[in-house]
Amino acid sequence: VTPWISFEAYPISVQTMGGTLVKVPLTAGHAFDLDSVAAAVTERTKLVFLATPNNPTGTAVSTAAVARLAESIPGDVVVLVDEAYREFADPALGDPVVDLLGHFDNVAVARTFSKAYGLASLRLGYVMAHPEIVSAIDKCLIPFNVNGLAQAAALAALGDDGAAAEAQANIDAIKVERGRVAGALAADGWDIPDTQANFVWMHLGARTDDVCIALEQRGVVVRPFSGVGIRVTIGTPAQNDRFLTTLAEVAQPA
User: Residue 94's closest CA among 107, 105, 78, 113?
Assistant: First the structure.
């Protein structure tokens, strides 16, 4: 079970394992409807995916909300909190590792070095969970699944030689630009959900493909979700200005 629209790898992963993905629509404000997620859980359910901040909408839920979900479903259903973009989120939302793992045996937290640390090509992530869940995951892992280069890069990213400070400076700059871009879009009349990631979400519906093509023809590349909307990654101030200017040339709020 997962709120939807969300990370596109979830359907692929579920299908690969022979499962059925149950998609729970987001609210009108592009947020998670966790009551409906809980209601969608049945005796057949094994796993709940929660990407928070969500990809591609950027919306997020608090650890208190996740706790209420975990309490309301059977204890043998794992709630996987996917925090790929957690570094960009408001700390006030809470830390599920601190707030949840010691209280719920069925909560797992996944994180990655792909986003805030820029190590996507090295494919390094990790999960924190109850030992029983970790043991089950270990049975499915391929041998030598994390290479030496990825491990060295991760250690360097977390080291005290300035790399961690540089990453945090980049994160802080992205947050500032994110607020500016979202504010500019809202001022122009676009309905922009509150984003806690390094991108903003624009619900365009049937216009999505046409707007995406028009932007690309003018040298601006965004991530389309056909028939639904576009995800706009926050770049440098100059890149963001170009996007805002170009968007105004090709599309107006409905």
Answer: 107
- What is the pTM for the complete model shown? 0.94
Could you give the residue ranges of the DSSP H alpha helices within the chain?
A: 9-16, 34-40, 63-72, 96-99, 131-138, 148-158, 163-187, 208-217, 237-250
Distance, CA of 199 to CA of 88 (rounded, Å): 10
Grouping H, G, I as helix, E, B as strand and the rest as coil, residue 40 is: helix
Q: Which amino acid is at 213?
A: I
Report the candidate in 6, 76, 91, 3 with the shortest Cα–Cα distance to residue 44.
76
Q: Give the chain's radius of gyration (CA, Å).
A: 19
DSSP SS3 for 184: helix
- Which residue is associated with the tokens 């994180």? 111
**Tokens 């408001």 sit on residue:** 90
> What are the structural domains of the chain?
2-158 (3.40.640.10), 163-250 (3.90.1150.10)
Nearest C-alpha neighbor of 196 from the set 7, 68, 55: 55
159, β-bridge pairs: none
Q: What is the pLDDT along the chain (254 residues), one digit of tens a residue?
A: 999 999 999 999 999 999 999 999 999 999 999 999 999 999 999 999 999 999 999 999 999 999 999 999 999 999 999 999 999 999 999 999 999 999 999 999 999 999 999 999 999 999 999 999 999 999 988 888 899 999 999 999 988 778 889 999 999 999 999 999 999 999 999 999 999 999 999 999 999 999 999 999 999 999 999 999 999 999 999 999 999 999 999 999 98
Reference 109, options 147, 80, 75; nearest CA is 80
CA 104 to chain centre: 22
